[in-house]
Amino acid sequence: MSKAILGKKVGMTQIFDADGKVIPVTVIEAGPCTVVMKKTAERDGYEAVQLGFEDVPERKLTKPEIGHLKQAGDARKKYLREFQLDNADELNPGDVLKADVFAEGDHVDVTGISRGKGYAGVIKRHGAQRTPTSHGGGPVHRHAGSMGSATDASRIFPGKIGAGHMGCEQVTVQNLDVVKVDPEINLIAVRGAVPGPKGGLVAIKTTVKNIAEKKGEAGTSVNPQKASARVNPQKASARTK
């Protein structure tokens, strides 16, 4: 992971590119994040930094939390997350990371807690099929129905789909484009939607996907086995009348 920052989801909007095309984007208030703790390979076995985001009054922190945050100076942060950054050895407690750690054109993964939707049935939660509505189906059309044998194994295996709490889970959306960065007001606009409600905490990290570089324009193939090679007499499109 080369770069990362914590932020808060502001909402969705749309912007226009140089060609006048509409780009749907999610605006994220990214940072400023303070380096609260630094881990080294000699002491901890790996290199990482702990970032703190969003100021909070000291009265809302416990004494152990205040003592932990003192190593970063006067930082009183509500959220703490650890990241293994490439430049972790260059950062020290008290350093501040802003939205300009990312630039336009970067590809990022955004992690957040999805919006909670309360208790939901098996059809809405997992897309299960309803029972037939004719021939005495009764008032159980949206119920889960039979789930297993009564003899062997006489139980429900873990992971079986069913009704329950829907949403409110950690979700990561991968390979989003950074469309615009405004370091003065700490805003990052990424193409597409990110998980969570407005005001929810999100973590922006360099994507783990391998981004293929775009090559030049394709020319006419010289392979006689391809349809684009018009010199191949075996192809119907290349035969002369």
Describe it for me?
The chain is mainly beta. The protein has a domain of 50 residues. Helices cover 7% and strands 34% of the residues. 20% of the residues are buried. The model has no long low-confidence stretch (mean pLDDT 86).
Summarize the entry for a quick read.
This protein is mainly beta and 241 residues long. The chain has helices at 41-44, 63-69, 122-126, and strands at residues 4-16, 22-30, 33-39, 48-55, 77-83, 96-97, 107-113, 119-120, 164-165, 170-182, 187-191, 201-206. It has a domain at 117-166.
Helix and strand arrangement:
Blueprint: E1 4-16, E2 22-30, E3 33-39, H1 41-44, E4 48-55, H2 63-69, E5 77-83, E6 96-97, E7 107-113, E8 119-120, H3 122-126, E9 164-165, E10 170-182, E11 187-191, E12 201-206
Antiparallel strand pairs: 1-2, 1-12, 2-11, 3-4, 3-6, 4-5, 7-10, 7-12, 8-9, 10-11
The arrangement of helices and strands along the chain is EEEHEHEEEEHEEEE
Helix content: under 10%
**Biggest sheet statistics:** 6 strands, antiparallel, barrel
Total DSSP E strands: 12
Strand fraction equals: 25-35%
Distance N to C terminus:
60 Å
Mean pLDDT: 86
Low-confidence stretches: none
Annotation field: number of helices: 3
Structural class, by secondary structure, is mainly beta
> What would you call the shape?
extended
Spatial extent as radius of gyration: 27 Å
Question: Biggest sheet: strands side by side, in what order?
Answer: 1-2-11-10-7-12
